[in-house]
């Protein structure tokens, strides 16, 4: 029997076309499905048009709303495919990874080429994502991204090219599997599987990136604005400038959880360096290590944990459990 798959469209280049004003949203959900002739033979499809926005317009609140839509509809389907812009697909998919309770396949997909270009990746990616969602093998593997004939865990993947069709990579981890013409082939399961039961989120979490010689002015601004949490994208192993360290200490003194991530794509942050601004000092002053989570995902995790009213110590423990 054919699997029942719900396609949820949110926008992104997969729904865009170039016009006089540049590349903009233009195709409806049913128009992008029509770009894949014969898809009805693979699965019984239903469509839900959530939005048609460029993904830089996606917000944590909209991501959380999307998670709620999947939760309310998944019971009637074998799997869900979500089309999304590549710019923030990492974040939306990770929000769903954190908050969905289902073990059914929820597969994100996207396109790098807009619909007037030669050699479209969108229809192929959508076709493949439907095949992945309809496969028995995809059950209980967490939320995944199917692009460029590859399958990634959304916990592990990041956008690695601004323009090429092989735009995603998962440093340290690699792909979960391949999408070949005859079959879906899995090589491994991701170790990460978080499921938080969440009624609300706390989106007021800032992200500040370090550069050489950086002062504490941005973190001071965040503190003054009454922010509920801060992610600091630090240097290397999680180190910051002495002035930024003072700002971080002040934020923690005021009860604001501060999560440290790295601006380096590979490896983990850890309290090794003990000099002024070193991550060891930050840890000793109560900063929370984000380990190998990238900054955007660490921010979403903090947004979810703050929504659950977790204390600073509980947040620290949950980030620690997630070591990769
Ligand atoms: N700017 C587009 C978006 O994220 C890029 C894409 O979809 O690939 O909406």
Global shape: elongated
Distance between the termini: 39 Å
CATH superfamily of the largest domain: L-asparaginase, N-terminal domain
CATH class of the largest domain: Alpha Beta
Largest beta sheet, briefly? 8 strands, mixed
CATH architecture of the largest domain: 3-Layer(aba) Sandwich
Average of pLDDT: 96
Strand segment tally:
16
Give the proportion of residues in helices. Answer: 25-40%
Would you mind describing this structure in some detail?
The chain is of the alpha/beta class. The strands form four sheets. It has an eight-stranded mixed beta sheet with strand order 4-1-5-6-7-8-11-12, sandwiched between helices. It has a four-stranded parallel beta sheet with strand order 13-14-15-16, sandwiched between helices. Helices cover 29% and strands 23% of the residues. It folds into two domains: 183 residues, Rossmann fold, CATH 3.40.50; 117 residues, Rossmann fold (3-Layer(aba) Sandwich). The longest helix has 14 residues. Aspartic acid binds next to loops.
């Amino acid at each position: 029997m054919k699997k029942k798959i719900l396609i949820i469209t949110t926008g992104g280049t997969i729904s865009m076309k170039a016009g006089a004003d540049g590349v903009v949203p233009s195709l409806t959900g049913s128009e992008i499905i029509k770009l894949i002739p014969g898809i009805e033979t693979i699965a019984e499809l239903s469509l839900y048009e959530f939005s048609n926005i460029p993904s830089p317009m996606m917000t944590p609140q909209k991501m959380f709303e999307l998670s709620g839509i999947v939760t309310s509809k998944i019971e009637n389907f074998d799997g869900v495919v979500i089309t999304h812009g590549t710019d923030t697909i990492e974040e939306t998919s990770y929000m769903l990874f954190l908050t969905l309770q289902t073990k059914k396949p929820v597969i994100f997909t996207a396109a790098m080429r807009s619909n007037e270009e030669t050699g479209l990746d969108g229809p192929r990616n959508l076709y493949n994502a439907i095949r992945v969602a309809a496969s028995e093998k995809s059950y209980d593997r967490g939320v995944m991204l199917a692009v460029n004939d590859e399958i990634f865990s959304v916990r592990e993947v990041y956008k690695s090219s601004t323009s090429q069709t092989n735009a995603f990579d998962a440093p340290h981890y690699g792909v979960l599997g391949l999408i070949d013409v005859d079959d879906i082939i899995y090589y491994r399961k991701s170790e990460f599987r978080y499921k938080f039961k969440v009624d609300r989120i706390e989106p007021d979490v800032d992200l500040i990136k370090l550069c050489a010689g950086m002062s504490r002015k941005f973190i001071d601004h965040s503190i003054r604005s009454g922010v509920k949490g801060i992610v600091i994208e630090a240097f290397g192993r999680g180190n910051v400038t002495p002035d930024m360290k003072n700002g971080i200490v002040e934020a923690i003194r005021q009860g604001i959880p501060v999560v440290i991530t790295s601006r380096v794509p590979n490896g983990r942050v850890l309290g090794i360096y003990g000099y002024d601004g070193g991550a060891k000092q930050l840890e000793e002053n109560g900063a929370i290590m984000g380990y190998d989570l990238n900054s955007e995902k660490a921010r979403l995790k903090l947004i979810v944990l703050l929504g659950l009213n977790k204390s600073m110590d509980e947040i620290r423990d949950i980030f620690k459990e997630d070591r990769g």
